[in-house]
């Protein structure tokens, strides 16, 4: 859609925006919000930097490796286009960007939606006033049509010593429950079959609002982790919980999983198991209590899948600490695990806690960790062989497809490779029988 230049009598071309989104799903939701606003204002979104009126790069600034990727993406955009606006987490330190790339047009920080849109306006004004019918009610989504990320809060009020997210994104700011539920309703009506609930600290949802209620349909709904999960479960789609800090009240949502209200899946970043390291990280430091809770969760919900992330080589980590971590893996028998070698982050208190662990020791521990967990994950996958499951199809190629069961989140976990006797469509649920397992994935036959 475009305006008409009355003087010339010719259509006024829509300006073109090329967009790069880097980092975590939280940043992806930020990108979706920015793109939705720009599209509503008549900007055309293009995949090519060449020919675009301006390029927007949404950066990640958490680790040095992520910063390097962001700076590389900015450099590529400048080389291909020359007109670049930078936003996102790395934009919290604009001098770092401008030192590397002085030619960028503007730099805005994370969650600065109005600022980045204003910078686009300055670089290339919109063709017309906003027309909201340019975008669907659920907004522009960068995920496949059948699943979407649902961000319930911004920022984080924890002070983990290895993390600078509060410096980049501020303290926890929860959305009112009714706002979250209205967005979820729009997504479900648009065909979304899986809602992936995200934030920096999902289980702290509502603390800053003192659990204040807001009107939803014919009742008031509290801004509380359990209440929100229960309400989301009423939409009849898959609801998956990510970034769940292991507070005691997390136990309350496990019965919802056992009842089938929400997916039996928890993404909990335990980070370590050795009490000394957890204390230095400012994380919960009760290994035995954590193991007892994991056992309790599985007693309540035997189908529960648990994914977690850990850090090896944290400053001061001893061989004894690392051994405790390996022992924890054996006891917890987590389904999916990610592991990172500690990387010093500018401004993180952990850098000065103790002497750094030598790089070669980090590398050796990382390999030992991954070998141990790979064997655990393989055993848990093998135990699913012969079972029947419900799978959401992500990609299809005629009679073969790739999908995910309840225990697999998109992009970070494994997949189920499918074979059927009829064409399989992306975005549909299918019933399957699991035939075999490999190190990370399952293979299954579609039965219905």
TrEMBL record:
Annotated MTTase N-terminal domain residues: 15-125
Entry cofactors: [4Fe-4S] cluster
Residues that coordinate or bind [4Fe-4S] cluster 1: 24, 60, 89
Predominant location: cytoplasm
Lineage of the organism: Bacteria, Pseudomonadati, Pseudomonadota, Alphaproteobacteria, Hyphomicrobiales
This protein's UniProt keywords: 4Fe-4S, Cytoplasm, Iron, Iron-sulfur, Metal-binding, Ribonucleoprotein, Ribosomal protein, S-adenosyl-L-methionine, Transferase
Subcellular location: Cytoplasm
Entries under Gene3D superfamilies matching the protein: Methylthiotransferase, N-terminal domain, Nucleic acid-binding proteins, tm_1862 like domain
Protein's GO biological process: tRNA modification
Gene name as annotated: rimO
Residues binding [4Fe-4S] cluster 2: 156, 160, 163
Job of this protein: Catalyzes the methylthiolation of an aspartic acid residue of ribosomal protein uS12.
Entries under CDD domains matching the protein: Radical_SAM (cd01335)
EC number per UniProt: 2.8.4.4
Family: Belongs to the methylthiotransferase family. RimO subfamily.
Annotated SMART domains: Elp3
GO cellular component, one term: cytosol
Protein species of origin: Segnochrobactrum spirostomi
Protein known as: Ribosomal protein uS12 methylthiotransferase RimO
